[in-house]
Amino acid sequence: MSAADVPRPDGAAGAVAAKRVKAVATPRMTWVTLALMTTSSVASLRSSPTMAVYGLACVFLYVVPAIVFLLPTALVSAELASGWEGGVYNWVAQGLSKPLGFLAVWCQFAMTIFYYPSLLAYVASTIAYVVDPSLASNGLYTAIVIMVLYWTGVWVSSRGTGAVAGLASWGLIIGTLIPGALLVVLGFVFLGQGNPSAAPMSADHLLPAWTGLASLVLIVNNFLSYSGMEMNAVHVSSLRNPGKEFPRSMFLAVGMVLLIFILPALAISWVVPADQLSLTAGVMQAFDAFFQYFHIGWLTPLVAVGLVAASLGGMLTWLAGPSKGLLMISRQEGYLPPSLQRLNGHGVQQNILVAQGAVTTVIALMYALIPDVSSVYWIFSVITTQVYLIVYLLMFLAAIRLRKLQPNHPRGYRAPALGVLCVVGLLASAAAMVIGFVPSSQFGGGSVWAYIGIVGGGLLLLGVIIPFGFLKASKPEWRDPAAAAAIEGEAA
Fold first, then answer.
1. How far apart are CA 329 and CA 335, in angstroms?
2. How far apart are CA 115 and CA 112, in angstroms?
3. What gap in Å lies between CA 385 and CA 393, rounded to an integer?
4. Nearest residue to 356 via CA among 163, 139, 121, 111
């Protein structure tokens, strides 16, 4: 959600003047810069262990969703962002309806409820490799770390500190690029010295072994790995020639993202057998194995600090963003009660963060109650993906409708073959949602129906019951457009 760059006078002349001012004020950006920004917001090492269990087949499992989901999302959202300000809420509200627009922005917010526990579980396991590696599989320890770090994040965010931006910016370098490059280099040296790979690297292992739908379940997590492309689409108007430069930028970003995802996942599979790989601690398992082999164990704490810094920076960024978007829409349309719309002395939506924190605390306790940490991590990752996929389903539908209903609306960029891109994106998102209900081998042999019940219950509660409950309860007197405009102005 972004505010207008300049105040807009009423009338046709005022609109023209505003467009001219905006054209002058809009900073120019090269397509390479946009590609780097996109890469930094999407790429991460956190999902590498999830795909490393498939060995060489992880290449296939990363490339397929990149083609059928990542590219359609990037190109379609670029057209929407270049024609309609206001982010996914306004896109869906204009193309479908305001209530569905609220559902979209709600799902952007709600997916973080499960995103934070899974992210912080990864942080907990990373910290464990500095303190005591055995703690990485301890549910109680993981639950305590999640709660402490989350509430610390809420406190930091509620102070309105500027340190959040700096931590997030450096996260890509110290927590992704440097550790990822180190992991890959160590892996190649390890193999170059004649050591056998823990996972087969022959051509007949390029595709995952087919054992039914469960053999493809891990591909679902990759849809969430690629999420966030729509946020960078707002920069399309900053390019000199969006029609040519934006696709070029996206193809470069996709290439870099694939390298960051695939190479570290392969390096992990070379040194950690699939049956011993933890979905939360897999990255540190690989580093620990390489460091022990090369007798440089003293690097373990340094790498752990970098990975933790990157993850915490990402958490703080997400903590402030979606909740503020939800707040602004709720103040404009009256979707949330006044108690959740209040701000603290620093202008932060503290009540929303606290309410979210209460739910996060309950979820964190599941790590203490369910013995297998990897199973809990996987379940939460799937629920996160399921809820966020609703956003993309609505976005693709809205794009089709807007091209039909408002064909002459000014757009800085028009996606080629928009209908085909949207249909591909819709089918891929729907397929991912269905596959998400099939438990993977990482579920630890638990009850299939329990898994379906937890995932389905989480999706139904967060994606249907709660948002439509807010819509049903909304009242005209809950609207506060002036306050929403003030917040939007501060964010611009």
1. 8
2. 4
3. 12
4. 111
Q: How far apart are CA 140 and CA 146, in angstroms?
A: 10
Whether the per-residue pLDDT at 445 is higher than 80: the answer is no
Sign of CA dihedral 94, 97, 99, 100: negative
Enumerate domains of the chain plus CATH numbers.
27-491 (1.20.1740.10)
Q: Which residues contact 422 (CB under 8 A, 6 or more apart)?
A: 72, 76, 396, 397, 399, 400
Amino acid at 262: I
pLDDT of 109 > 90? The answer is no
What is the length of the chain? Answer: 492
- CA torsion angle 465 468 474 479 (round to 10): 110
Residue 373 contacts residue 121 (beta carbons within 8 Å): yes
Q: Round the average pLDDT of the chain to a whole number and report it.
A: 80
Confidence of residue 321 (pLDDT cuts 50, 70, 90): low
Radius of gyration (C-alpha) of the chain in whole angstroms = 22
Sign of torsion, CA 108 110 112 118? negative
Q: With H, G, I as helix, E, B as strand and everything else as coil, classify residue 96.
A: coil
Q: Which of 172, 117, 110, 465 is nearest to 322 (CA)?
A: 110
Taking the C-alpha atoms of residue 168 and residue 410, their distance in angstroms, rounded to an integer, is 34
4-13, 16-25, 226-235: segment of lowest average pLDDT: 4-13
Both structure tokens of 155: 């406190």
CA dist 396 and 422 (Å) reads 5
Tell me the C-alpha to C-alpha distance, in Å, between residue 292 and each of 195, 230, 302, 314.
14, 41, 15, 29
Instruction: Report yes or no: 304 and 144 within 8 Å, Cβ to Cβ.
Output: no
Show Cβ contacts of residue 77 under 8 Å, excluding neighbours closer than 6 positions. Answer: 229, 230, 233, 395
From CA 437, how far away is CA 48, in angstroms rounded? 21
Task: Map tokens 């029609």 to a residue.
Answer: 243
**3-state secondary structure (DSSP) of residue 52:** helix
List CB contacts of 228: < 8 A, sequence separation 6 or more.
41, 42
Q: What is the pLDDT of residues 362-374, one digit of tens each?
A: 888 877 777 666 6
Vertex 85: Cα angle to 81 and 88 (nearest 5) = 65
What is the four-CA torsion angle of 456, 453, 61, 248, rounded to 10 degrees? 20
pTM of the predicted model over 0.90: no
Q: Give pLDDT tens digits for 179-205.
A: 989 999 999 999 999 999 998 888 778
> What single-letter amino acid sits at 275?
D
pLDDT digits (tens, 9 = 90+) for 132-167: 888 888 888 888 998 999 898 888 777 654 545 545
